[in-house]
Amino acid sequence: QKEVEQNSGPLSVPEGAIASLNCTYSDRGSQSFFWYRQYSGKSPELIMFIYSNGDKEDGRFTAQLNKASQYVSLLIRDSQPSDSATYLCAPDGGGADGLTFGKGTHLIIQP
Amino acid sequence: NAGVTQTPKFRILKIGQSMTLQCAQDMNHNYMYWYRQDPGMGLKLIYYSVGAGITDKGEVPNGYNVSRSTTEDFPLRLELAAPSQTSVYFCASSAIAEKRKETQYFGPGTRLLVL
Question: What residues in A contact B56, CB-CB < 8 Å?
Fold first, then answer.
């Protein structure tokens, strides 16, 4: 059974601060890691993916991966109210089947 | 491109009724997926397909059936609806995964209430 653990929150962060979202996974075979953002009542949309150990930056978003510790995180710099959403972590264990999603972390950016 | 489309947006079913949730994509993606999302939970895979005529079970397939006669369409059939099937259903598609999975693009979802 592949397990993905995320703190469900809510995680409250002041506007302009750094939001840090964490995810741990059980499947050591996971090679790629996806972060999806889901606004309330909407469908998930991809914001980042990472497949190498270390950091990957894209605008205000940075994904960090540590395969040895089975840990992946997402940092959001200069947080904006529009970043308020649920963030879903999804490791890819390989194969053609779907992703295994965590329950998500509900992030609230306070103006 | 419309991307991934789903119909209906919302439906109320009585226990024991059946229905088909429609999903279509216009991105020529080979891979298609059906997920369900219960309140406060992540998405769970129901069924997936790697191409026309090929389908396989996911984590929670009981009570559902799928077919894939074309690349574009991937309908999900609910037979004998039960209250436990009350959920939001998302269809997704992606290009062929070679070395690693490609981005999955999600439809807007179908909200289903079984009473």
Answer: 96-97
